[in-house]
Amino acid sequence: MKEPNLRFVTNKAIEELTKGLNLIYDLDDYQDWEYIVGKPADVEKYINYYNSEINDDCKFALMEIIIQAIEDQEKKSDFLKYLEITQKILSINFKIHEYSIFYWCCFDNENLEDCWKVTPYLRTLWEKNSINNMS
């Protein structure tokens, strides 16, 4: 399986999302900013913002926040609801998010119990989309 090219969250995307979504920005937390700033209760707000006119770098960074917020949902019904919405977005924008999808698939671990809750769903999405979309 070919691993997609690495992609990272940019400073410009952090600045734009911080402003647009009123997120916290602290240079001490920059390395994992996209996994720290999101709140599970705000996942719907993030999804709605994603669908506004933002550039691909912001979409990439915001999707990391969205996936983490889905992962952190306490109720299974909310987890599944937001995951379903997000899977559609990921399929449509696969090229923007192929590295994120690959990362969250946790392919280096065959035991799904040692992976994230989103992993089996994103593995299925990866299998459906990667063959046709990988360059």
Entry keywords:
135 residues, mainly alpha
Can you describe this structure?
- By secondary structure, this protein is mainly α.
- It has helices at 11-21, 33-36, 43-50, 56-71, 76-92, 94-105, 119-133.
- The protein starts with 10 loop residues before the first helix and ends with a helix.
- The protein is globular.
- The mean pLDDT is 93.
Number of continuous helical runs: 7
The succession of helices and strands, N to C, reads HHHHHHH
Mean pLDDT: 93
The portion of residues forming beta strands comes to under 5%
Rg estimate, integer Å: 14 Å
Main beta sheet = none
Uncertain ranges:
none
Which structural category fits the helices and strands?
mainly alpha
Task: State the end-to-end distance.
Answer: 12 Å
Work out the number of β strands: 0
How much helicity do the residues have?
55-70%
Shape: globular
